[in-house]
Amino acid sequence: MEAICIPKMYCPFPPQISPYAQEVHEHSLAWATRFQMIQGEAARRRFHGTNLARLTARAYPTASLEDMKLLNDWMVWFFVFDDQFDDVLGTSLESALSTVHAYIKICEDAGEQSAPGPAAAALCDLYRRTLPRMSPDWRTRFTRHFIQYLDTYTWMGQHHLQGAIPELHVYLEYRYHSGGAVPSLDLIEFADRLCLPDELLLNWEFERLNRAANHAICWSNDIFSLAKELARGEVSNLVVITKHMYRLSWQEAIESVNTMVTNEVRLFERIERQMPPVAPHLAADAYRYIAGLKAWIRANFDWSAETHRYLHVEQTRAGETVSYVEPILATAPMIE
């Protein structure tokens, strides 16, 4: 592969970071260790190098310390589970289907019924700690979005096993859910203790703001994670698809995707400027939510540029598992 350069991302939103980042990092390490999401030294090094607390502290900068601990536990679950796809779920469609089905059942049962393995137990814990405080509408919406996220793993598994590069329009439809950005943006309401009705979130301006933020986050991730995904044989990546579709060099494909990201951020700005006034009784929460979307876009750009997750890619021989992926989908006892 030719040498590539990650371009500067266009982002007019100012950076923010909570002072709780280090404390939250230490909490989530203890939480992940307790649930055996992290077991060995390689996974522990991976955790420290990834430093998701610096993403969480940027994405939810106004959250309280206790709320940020839970939010970061969610981020840890998302990213550790994603690593399982490359080396476990991605090598067996049957495993992907059975795992996704089991975790969807956890979501439908609101975390009351678990499944074997550390990841399932940790997911139950997250559900039980999150849902009680939120409205019934939010719980329904979050669960629907989380299930849609899980469902994308079976689609990605098929393409991963076949080595088939997806069609662009199909990939973009699945990418909206596969990055976990939709439930992560739902958590803005948890972080800022908001209660937004569906009638507001489903109007055109809010729906398009959410979509533009999602695109900026997920599409830019395909740039930052390119080297990692190529090392694991992953073809479901916007840069890979763009290169293949338009017969570009790697750098040209990266620049093309970066232009797509920039266009989404500019669209976000334009919609925000032109959106009509929000009803007075909803205005304060609505504008805090929009501020949360901006924080997430900027957080993703800044964290992705510094995390070892994308800067230090472990190389292995074909068929070998990377050192930090552990058997968290299999039965293992929780450490009391």
TrEMBL record:
UniProt keyword terms in alphabetical order: Lyase, Magnesium, Metal-binding
UniProt KW Metal-binding keyword: yes
GO molecular function, one term: terpene synthase activity
Keyword Metal-binding: yes
Coiled-coil intervals, chain numbering: none
InterPro entries: Isoprenoid_synthase_dom_sf (IPR008949), Terpene_cyclase-like_2 (IPR034686)
Transmembrane segments annotated in the record for this chain: none
Cofactor requirements of the protein: Mg(2+)
EC number(s) stated in the UniProt entry for this protein: 4.2.3.-
Any one Pfam family match given in the protein's UniProt record, by short name: Terpene_syn_C_2
Family recorded in the similarity comment: Belongs to the terpene synthase family.
Name assigned to this protein: Terpene synthase
